[in-house]
Amino acid sequence: MKSVRPKKQLGQHFLTDQEVAQKIANTVDACPGLPILEVGPGMGVLTQYLLPKGRPVKVVEIDTESVAYLKEHMPQLGEDILEDDFLRMPLDRIFGGEPFVLTGNYPYNISSQIFFRMLEYRDLIPCCTGMIQREVALRMAAAPGSRTYGILSVLLQAWYDIEYLFTVDEHVFCPPPKVKSAVIRLTRNNVTSLPCQEALFRRVVKTTFNQRRKTLRNNIRPLLTQIDTEQTGKGIQPKDHTEWLAQPLFQKRPEQLSVQDFIQLTLSLQEECGL
User: Fold this and answer.
1) Which of 54, 108, 142, 209 has the fewest CB atoms within 10 Å, counting from its CB?
2) Residue 5 above 80 pLDDT?
3) Which positions ≥6 away from 23 have C-beta within 8 Å?
4) From 1.10.260.40, 3.40.50.150, 3.40.190.10, 3.40.50.1390, which CATH number describes the 8-188 domain?
5) Largest separation between any pair of C-alpha atoms in the chain
6) pTM of the predicted model, to two decimals?
């Protein structure tokens, strides 16, 4: 097999620039000693620079044709080629429950889903690097007040420090994507748990950003209604939230709130609704 045909339905854009591939592989050096899991290796352009780093490397690939290519051209990987769906496979079994570095030239059509999946296993993944669409990278690293600051920014920054490392132009891919790409690195911060209910924190972030141009007073009302309905089903009489919503905080828009502000908002909501 000479090469693999990129498949649009899998979001495949194969990197062709060896220098860029080497630079991406070197981003894992900031997390020494840990085994490496590469997502979407394709024809192994990144894998070839990960293997000499002297630590265990496994690759997970959903594309049968790419798996066949890797088995033929990189036989040294052997059983470390995992033909599976990263979004569905149990990540705690890959290295026997040991922590690992996540990296890859991530498929563009599932890049956000990959990072939400990473969050589910954040205690196993102290470091994540790789290449994604530039617009997604900018959202991940955005600060409060930025137009690109949103759900992905808050949920990831609650648990990881995020670095935007460098931009990659379209012409170094086959086929060339319509947008620029970027290489990022995420490193676990020292947060081990949130002082609020984590599931409610996620609901608050997602609900308020659904209508990001509205003030919090307006866009948190649907969540209040949902919680009141849930509480009523438990025999708890909901209260009037007028006074709570009159606080100055609710004059702000969601993109003006930091991660800590969202945590405090969640704690306040818990108290207001008796959760």
Assistant:
1) 54
2) no
3) 166, 183
4) 3.40.50.150
5) 69
6) 0.92
